[in-house]
Amino acid sequence: MRIINIVAKKGGGKTTTVKNKILPKLKKYLVFDLYGDDGYSDLPIAKKNAPPPKKARIAGGTFQSFMAYGSKLKDTALIVEDATIFIKGDIHNDDLRASIIGCRHRNILLVFLWHSLGRIPPFILEQSDFIILGNTQDGNFKKYERHPQIEEAHNRIKARLSKGEKYPFEQVTI
């Protein structure tokens, strides 16, 4: 399964990281942006009953409707802005879990944007390839004992912030 989690507090550079580091490497993608963020206003809006353009966005709706739309796609990336709103705690929703697992069979890259590490459900974290970690307010890393590299990266990011770097990010392999 291919899952990337991008984690930083609000205003921490998540959307900018997606636009500058991830989207240029992709041939096809669909961005789910509940609030219609200006960061994606240059993308055409995908129409419900029509095949999406190679690069498009969906503004508004529910995460389930986005995943249902995405279930018709293959060989593309699905990018979820504000995943924190849609996926909470451990995933107990069997349909959602099945949708996420089903992406593997259609060669879908899932990119979730989170406001904190603590919001990433264990199921998603364990299925992830890596995290692109930015400035977060996380402080308790007991939950990530199996992944000490997360806390190590967090500490390096804090050190970089103290030296004046505005948007430090590190890629952490899971």
Concise synopsis of the structure shown:
With 174 residues, the protein is α/β, with parallel strands linked by helices. The protein has helices spanning 14-22, 63-70, 83-86, 94-105, 122-127, 148-162, and strands at 2-7, 29-33, 55-59, 76-80, 108-114, 130-133, 170-173.
Tags for this entry?
globular, seven-stranded mixed β-sheet, 7 strands, alpha/beta, 6 helices, Rossmann fold, about 170 residues
Give a written overview of the molecule.
It is a single chain. The chain has 174 residues and is α/β, with parallel strands linked by helices. The chain has a single domain, classed as P-loop containing nucleotide triphosphate hydrolases (Rossmann fold). 31% of the residues lie in helices and 21% in strands. The chain contains six helices and seven strands; from the N terminus they run E-H-E-E-H-E-H-H-E-H-E-H-E. It has a seven-stranded mixed sheet with strand order 3-2-4-5-1-6-7, sandwiched between helices. The mean pLDDT is 87.
CATH-assigned fold name:
Rossmann fold
Low-confidence stretches: none
Q: Taking strands numbered 1, 2, ... along the chain, how are they ordered across the largest sheet?
A: 3-2-4-5-1-6-7
Order of helices and strands: EHEEHEHHEHEHE
- Helix percentage: 25-40%
Ends apart, CA distance between termini? 12 Å
Shape: globular
Domains (count): 1
Strand % is 15-25%
- What do the pLDDT scores average to? 87
CATH architecture: 3-Layer(aba) Sandwich
